[in-house]
Each structure stands twice: as structure tokens, then as C-alpha cells.
Amino acid sequence: MNKSELIEALAAEKGLTYKKAEEIVSIVFDAMTDAMVRNERIEIRGFGSFVVKDYKAYTGRNPKTGDPIEVKPKKLPFFKVGKELKERVDNGQ
Predict the structure, then answer these.
(1) Stretch (H or E) spanning 36
(2) Whole-angstrom Cα distance, residue 80 to residue 78?
(3) What is the pLDDT of residues 31-44, one digit of tens each?
(4) Which residues are CB-contacts of 10 (< 8 A; sequence separation ≥ 6)?
(5) CATH classification code of 40-93
(6) Where are the domains of the chain?
(7) What CDD domains would the database entry show (predicted)?
(8) Mean pLDDT of the region 14-40
(9) Phi/psi at 31 (nearest 5 deg)?
(10) How far is CA 73 from the centre of its chain?
(11) Full-model pTM
(12) Which residue has the higher pLDDT, 93 or 66?
């Protein structure tokens, strides 16, 4: 499922216009993105949690030339699946 399919499903399920459903989905995604930018943890019970992990700088290598390169420190979002979602997917429900 992609974002537009999620919008269509929300609109159909709740009897909303596509435009209103799109606005709701955008608000939710923007709020989640803003929380992760602030380094906050997002937990959705029964679904999973999103956290931002910090990665230190390291020396890597260019795969084409083999030359060493310095990789800067970075922060990346990470998703950890919740127990209920894991069980539902495993049981095919």
C-alpha cells in the first residue's frame, strides 16, 4: 500500500472526500516527521514504534575505486514492529 492507496482507503471507509482524507493523512505524517526531527519516540500500540538512531562517523571505502572515504555521523529513523502486528502478520490475519 502506498500513500495514495491509504488516502483512498480512508476516504472510502469514513465517507470523506479524497481531498479531506489526503489532508488528514498529511497531518498525521507531518506530525510524525516533526516528532522524529525533535528526536522523540513515536509509539503506536499494537503496531510498532519509531525511533531515531544515531550513527557515529566512520571510515568507509568507495566501492568503485576502493579509496577510503570519511562518512559523517548521521541520524536515521528506525521502525520496531509491535508484538500484536508481528503475531497478526505471522498468523495471516
Answers:
(1) helix 18-37
(2) 7
(3) 999 999 999 999 99
(4) 16, 21, 24, 25
(5) 4.10.520.10
(6) 1-38, 40-93
(7) IHF_B
(8) 97
(9) -65, -40
(10) 20
(11) 0.79
(12) 66
